Amino acid sequence: MADCSRLLQQGLGLVQTAAQQDAAGNYQEAVRLYSLALDAFLSVLKMERNPRIVDTLKGKVVDYMNRAEELKTLLAQQQSSSRGGGGGGGGSLVTDPGALVLPSPPADLPSRGSSSVSTQPLVTSAKASSPSFPSSPVPYRGAEPGAPPSPYMSGGPAPAAPAQSGSLSLPTPHEGGLINIEEGQLGRNFESIFAAYIVDSQEIWIRDPNLCHTHQVYNLIRFCELVVRINRKVTRPCLRIHVVTAFENDMQLDTLQSALNELTDSLKAHGVELLASFDNRGEREVVFSSGWTLVLPHGLDIHQSPAGKFRLGACDLMLRPTKQNIIQVFKHS
């Protein structure tokens, strides 16, 4: 059910961005995003057992499919007109993008984190408690009236710029509410993805049920190392990191407790508190107190396994190929 909810949220995010591109007249990009959303929704239909949800989603899938086909026809007409010198009246499907009536996302669908799983508190050397996550974010649709345009998100404010005591390079801006990382891409590390959102966040929540595996614990360490590096260069450092994860058996629990206890002690020396608990409900996500949430399909496991222990990319993630990731970016209050 968690996979079903994740795919559904991914599809909704894609549809909302596709509708924005559609209304702006960026039809090629809109077709691509509608197609990705349809793939996600069709996967949901294969797994979903609630007939009310299935019926609602089927109707919306038809709407999105029809709109994508209309845009493909429009693009083909435009190409044909361009080759023919622009003559003669094929009749555009959309003359005014502002007048376009777009299909709305499906309503009454499962909420994120709807499955129920018992939790077990983790006893660490710091006082551990089950963190209360900020309220579920809504898809970011734009800034409040009067807010300046953002280079990070189309139509809204960027993550707050740091008050710097040293030089801090922010990552390349991400447009449209999605960070699209291709399979096998190089030049992506945690700083390029997370740094702009860590800045000005005094508290961070990480939910990733797969941290029970050793290489994913190393991903958590890399994230914490990035937080510590950024803390040295800003006036409002991150003071607390919450980790919510899961385990498959008692052996994994013992290993994970040991690793998190060690990481907790290490972070203390840098003025950062780590609080951990167990719960496998909800999406893989990172929530920042600065007001941003990143939903990650693979959690922190963004990169492929290194090709060998002694090959480039084994240490430097910028040189390690990525997995395919479509990361959704949300704004919450």
Automatic annotation (TrEMBL):
> Boundaries of each MIT domain copy?
4-81
The cross-references to Pfam families, in alphabetical order and at most eight, read: MIT (PF04212), MIT_C (PF16565)
InterPro entries (UniProt xref): MIT_dom (IPR007330), MIT_dom_sf (IPR036181), MITD1_C (IPR032341), MITD1_C_sf (IPR038113)
Q: What is this protein called?
A: MIT domain containing protein
Q: Which domain of life is it from?
A: Eukaryota
Where is composition skewed (Low complexity) in this entry? 129-139, 152-171
Biased composition of type Gly residues is found at 83-92
Residue ranges for the region (Disordered) are 77-176
Q: Where is the composition biased (Polar residues)?
A: 112-128
